[in-house]
C-alpha cells in the first residue's frame, strides 16, 4: 500500500469519526402544560440542555377530570367551555417563545381520550400524531426516538394505534401510576392514568413497546419551596419570569409544591440520579417487562435543576 493511500485512509477516517460521535439522541416531549405548574419546570429542564439533544417536537396534551364539570375554575382557568389541549398548546408556545425556540415543531394533540367512557382503543388523530408518525417513519433503521410524556397517554397511544409499525422505533418515558416496589403491585388510580385509562391499557397490551415509568410515589419527594423558588428566579430573564409567573397564577397560596414531572425529566437526563427496576406489567394486561423508577436522589435533582437554569442565563 502506498504512502498516499495510507494518508488518504487516515484522513477519511478522522472525517467520519466525529460525525458518528456527534449524533444526538432524538427526543419528543408531550405535556399537559396547562394542567399543573410542574410541567413548565420539567420542559424548562429539557430545553436548557437542548443543544445536547435533537428535539423533534414539543406537543400539547389534554387533561380531564370531574372538577372541570363541577367547579367554576381549574387553577386560574374558568371551566365554562374549557378546551384543555388548547390551553396546554398556548402555554407550550409561551415557553418556546421565551426560549427563542418556536422553530421546534410544536403540534397540538387530541382534545379527548381514546375510545369511549366504557373502554375501547379508537385512536384520536391530531396534528401531533401526524407529525410524530412522520418523524418516526423518516428515521434510519436501528435508530429510536425517545418520547417523554408527562400527562395523559392519548397522543402517544393514538399515534401507535394509527401506525403500529412505529412502536418498535420508540422508547417511552412517562410520569404516572403508582407502584409498590416491595409488593410489586400496580395502582392505576392516579391523575394522568385516570385521564385516559384506555390509552394506558393500550400501551400495556403492546409487547413491542419499550417503556420506563416514573410512579407518583417515587417522584412525590421532589418538592420546591415557594419563597426559595421566587428568590432563585430572576425575572429579567424571560424563561425565569415565566416560571415564577406560573406559580403566582396557578398556586399562589401554596408554600410548597411537588414538582412531579421534573423528576422524570431529570431521571432521563441523569440516569445516575434514579434507581430502576424491571418488573412485570399489571396482571390485567399483556404480560411482559417494563422499567419502573423506584427511587430518586431528590437533593441532587433539585441542585441540578437550579444549576442548569442559572447557567442558561445570558443564552437567551
From TrEMBL:
The keyword Hydrolase applies. Keywords: Glycosidase, Hydrolase. GO terms for molecular function: purine nucleosidase activity. GO terms for biological process: purine nucleoside catabolic process. GO terms for cellular component: cytosol. The keyword Hydrolase applies. InterPro entries: Inosine/uridine_hydrolase_dom, IUNH, Ribo_hydro-like. Residues 27-302 form the Inosine/uridine-preferring nucleoside hydrolase domain. This is Inosine-uridine nucleoside N-ribohydrolase.
